[in-house]
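[Automated response] Your request has been received and processed.

Submitted sequence:
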Amino acid sequence: MPTQQVAVVTGTSSGFGKLTAETFASSGWRVFAGLRDVDSRNAEAADALRERGITVVGLDVTDDASVAGAVRAVLDQAGAVDVLVNNAGIGAFGIQEAFTPAAVEQQFAVNVVGTLRVNRAFLPSMRERRSGLVVYMSSRLGRYVVPFMGLYCASKWAIEALAEASSYELAPFGIDVAIIEPAVYPTGLLAKDVGADDPERVASYGDTARFREALTGALQSATEGRDPGDVAREVVRLAELPAGERPLRTAMPATPAMDENNAAVAAYQRQLLKSYGLQELLPHAAR
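Generated structure:
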């Protein structure tokens, strides 16, 4: 009998993370769902995951001790990890100048530094096995920019850069990297937005602030008809592809403009690495 494959998903209290954990479980994977505050504010979400046969681990991506405890719990129980899904993230939207440095640091602490912290904890065991897949939940806003979402865009652009750079660094160890770039979906992210934390700066922009409110309405409308479960199913589909055959980037839903942009940048990226003598780090088909 084949050994049950193991997936770890961060940020599973709701949205893409919750759906991805559930979809892996429904597909026969052994799943470890990481989330904060499992005994308090997220206790109900944790119980719902357990009811699906998913193992819940307390995991706060901004805390070294929490991440270290999570990786120990996973490896003690499962022995190895086949897929790590970096999903944990937050969004704060508004006039860029109206975010204090503390608010900027918090956005990057979760979305960027938190992802690096989780990777540092799990990658050594994956490299030792010389196999695995690391998935990054990015966004279309990791490739494009929308005003009043600059802070969120910046964190996702950072994730895109870190993920792609790691794809070359991890290739010699047989580890694949996949970046998911969803458009806006009804995941509750917009509802959790606390906005900029300097109301006086917001007020000083006067009538310009109305565009921020209009954007919120446009984003809400754009979610209509979109199923966030499609993103979760795509993550699992990529995980079940043979090693070496997973695309680096997948836009959800697929659109010609996004695909053409990614293909054009990828062509230049290949040329760049070849010019630096790093072609051996490229996928075999791209060398």
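Summary generated for your ticket: The chain has a mean pLDDT of 94. The chain has two domains: 6-254, 258-287.
If you did not submit this request, please reply to this message.
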